[in-house]
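[job 4471] stage=fold_predict status=RUNNING
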Amino acid sequence: MKPAQIRKKIAETPAKSAASGAGSALDKWRPMFAAEMERVDKLIESLSESDAGLIPKLTMHLVGSGGKRLRPVLTILAAKLCKYEGERHIRLAAAIEFIHTATLLHDDVVDESELRRGKQTANHVWGNAASVLVGDFLLSRAFQLMAQDGSLKVLQILSDTSAIISEGEVLQLMSMGDLAREKETYIRIISAKTAQLFAAGCEVGAVIADAGDAKENAMLEFGKNLGIAFQIVDDALDYSAKQEQLGKAVGDDFREGKVTLPVLNAYAKADKQGKTFWERTISAHKQEEGDLAEAIRLIGATNALDATMAEAKAYADKAAKALEVFDDSDAKQALLDLLEFSVNRPY
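[job 4471] inference complete, writing structure tokens
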């Protein structure tokens, strides 16, 4: 893929999101960070170029798939909230996005996924080996950007994050199909896999601004709780929204046998027949035609989604409270709007 094609692919992504109704909070505040995100995009573009043509193809397959790119935006907004003036947040936002993209490539191989946001996954198109290797390349690019930043504290935060994400993947693999899993284990998994990168992206924005321990910890707490709430809602939507709203096939988690919070809540309240259904479809992973519809019915009958959303909102409240240490500003309001969108989004 030529540089001009890569640039066009990145530039089109926000427009596609907006056209599908996604990212309303992002669209509202986009003028605040548009120029910086353009620079992040150009850096991603330049570092995705390679003589190995499969690297830019695979990278842009994901970048151009309609994602909202929340993580680099959070880094930019965190830096703004902490009144940072400089250039370091551009490199670090790009590093955050490279880590995220690498984990998506690896996740889809582990999960044997065929669709992501309604598009064929990279591993389905190019194979598992290509996806794993390009994911490794992107992770290496992220570490190059960390090294260029020169801060040992930033390097520690982001390298720890990479290890924690991998640990979360292994923990999820170890507990696949385990309906006896405690909710605490579920929270540990999504805290590692999803929330850790949200938290790191917010924290480094405060670190480079020399905001001090209190504000650095506040940004860490905001990002962590936002990430947990975001993932809980994502898991709930897999059983509640139409495919057009989600941008992916409803029931992906169910078909992959994932034990998410809606399933845990439904299983806890199920009668004997319902428990037998979940044990067959999730624990034994033996699914038949019509099982997804029955899963959605059982989740509705046990009010599992209401319980799930209540937990998401509790984490969102913790995230909002973490921002109280900051004075009111446009950056603070943008983060609060993103938080509200993350919990209340219909997709």
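[job 4471] summary: The chain has a mean pLDDT of 87.
[job 4471] exit 0
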